[in-house]
Amino acid sequence: MRVQLTIALAHLRQRPRSTLVSLLGIMLGVAFFLAVSALMRGSEQDFLKRLVDNSAHITVMDQYRTPRVQPAEVRWPGAALAISNVKPQQETRGIRNYRNKLEAIENLPGVRVAPVLRGSAVLTFAGQQQGLSLSGVVPSRMKDVSTIDEQMVAGTLDELSAAPNGVIIGQGLADKFQLGLGSTVNVLTASGGSRIMKVVGIFRTGNAGYDEAEAFTLLKRAQVILERPNRVNRFIIQLADPQAARTVAAAIEASVGYKAVSWIEASEDLLSLLLVRNIIMYSVVTAILVVASFGIYNTISTIVVDKRRDIAILKAMGFQAADVRRIFLYQGMVIGLLGSAAGLLLGYGMMHVLARVELKPPGVSDVVAMPIWWGADQYLLAVAFAMAACLGAAYLPASKAGKLQPVMTLRGAI
Hints:
alpha+beta, two-stranded antiparallel sheet
């Protein structure tokens, strides 16, 4: 191995210009692989963090995943007589016996849960009307499962406990109606409930649709306005490990009977889109390394052609075909290792430069920094792709060198 490596290094030193071009190709390929991968994966992690942090990990709703079997079907399965246009029994929607179910969910490890009663309402002020979703919450619990308290620009979520008729609205709705802290508005519900409420807080999430169409009030007040006494229609759940949401949701659904939707299930289309984007990204950056490997192929192929007599002499001295192939594979390996090392340093520098870039998109007041992923796995992946490309490019000329016949070569035959 030592002799083969010495010969391989000697061949590369004899062609410094070709070797340097091959090294630069691999170095730039690894550097761009790192920079693009860090940027794409950083944006993916930032998107998932925003998605996970700003939404419930699991939402339990007052619905059933499959329709409940009617008593008549249980009593007379497959009966010949079918009754159509039967009007369902009128009942108040909501999660029945929610306090016991809430306690059962709280006992699960790593789970934080808050009860919510959500309904449609219309806010009227000075002749203006705006449809919105009114959520009745318990402030102390809501702060554990939501970031809404961190997004308050005026007032706090705790103000709802001090003001039973208080309501918290979004910045977009406040600007639209020219409302401020202390303003009074009229809230009407589809069930006919009406209440004069006082604005005790204003939040801003940056999502215009959310900031104009969401409002929060005390749970007991929402139960009165929506005419659903002692009912909630959903549980908002946060987990210590968001990636376990699908498993925990299935366990909760089996326990309480109501439909439990994890953030993974609710965002399957977005997660599929991210998967496709990653495949495209890795295909592009891998193509860069494949193009760079052609330089290695050209360099080693030229060496094989120029060193045919030397190869023949080596084989005449006792070198086997595998030994000759190993010489040229070592050349690809050396170029891959040196190019990867230089590419890692250059890529690391490019990542630092990208991390300092700040953008301000049109219409956005906040400055946005470029999200960069610093995980160690992408460095290993970049080196693995580079080495695979280098050894793949070196194998073809190495195989050709191993097949050379020493007698025919020394006689001058091609």
